[in-house]
Amino acid sequence: MITASAESRKQTYNVTVKGIGAYLPGNKVSIDEIDEYLGHLPGIDTLKYYKFIERFAGIKYRYCAIEKGSGALNEDIVELSYKSASMALRRANITGDEVDLIITTTTTPPYLRGGLAKEIRLRLGNNGCSTFDLWGACTGIEQAITLATAGIRAGMYRNALLVGAELTSTSGRAENYAHGKVDRYDILLRGALGDGAGALVLSRSDGDNEDHILYTCCGTEGGTDSAFHREAGGSTLPLNLETFKQGKHHWHHDFQKMVKSGIPYFIEITRRTLELISLPIDKVDFIIPAAANFGYFSNNDYLNEMSEGEREFVQEIRTRMFTNFADVGNVPSAAIYIALNELYETGRLSEDVVLLLASVEGATWGWGASVLRWSQS
What we know:
Helix content is 33%, strand content 20%.
């Protein structure tokens, strides 16, 4: 058990962002190639739905960890996670055995149990540290930053490794669907989702002026029905032959509800965050949402019901948004990590760049917001 020492309990520590990394398996897969990886759904013109996703959400490519044609798994989610974690640790100049906290987020764990964080620990050669497995999907990175920051500030941890990963292509294979129960939401999801992983390293700083976490918080609120869920597979409704035949193990994503409820929710979370820390939006360099949240702003109809001041605020949000989901697909738990990594690798994360990571997810209508100040060091 890791506990804060008597000395460390006397003070709180600053938190620094030390390293970022990401990993995308295989090659880019266009909408014309999706069924070559995931298999054909008999009697369904899937390309029509994939083209809708490309047009509405802007997703042109995604990555698959499975083999074209056979669907055989080339790399599992532990491997994806390990490769992104290794990159982040290398950039942070931290070894695997120096990590004392690992937090992972995924909706596609390798097995129906916790343990992705433990598997990453073993791959890193770490003999023992605190490990947590979250199920935050789009809000996973903000949840992880919030928990890790609290632990580091309290003196419990020195180096935290945060990992978000998804491997959706295996469950998206045609043989895993109950034929006759496939609806448009199933097909749209096949066109939107991709595989990949990302990682972030946070560390304790003993310097008075080195605090890179300006704000971080997450939660759930309201009572809106879920827009993203999977009925079968849990203890209430176990997966068996009958529930499989009924297609209750399919992921259900109500895109219309996500857009209708997600737009005002995302705007409110952004506004609330900036007001809480008295940070003008023009001081924010990049707003990085989970990939799905970006699609909320591709349609301008919602602006008609807003006041002029609200429209101006939304325009400020839109001009600062960055996401690379068009080239990598929607990788829910890893989306923001992957976007951050591209900003880093393309030289756009210069000294003192201010980042607002903001997300809304439709399973619990959870939200997350983290404000970071980047440092080249």
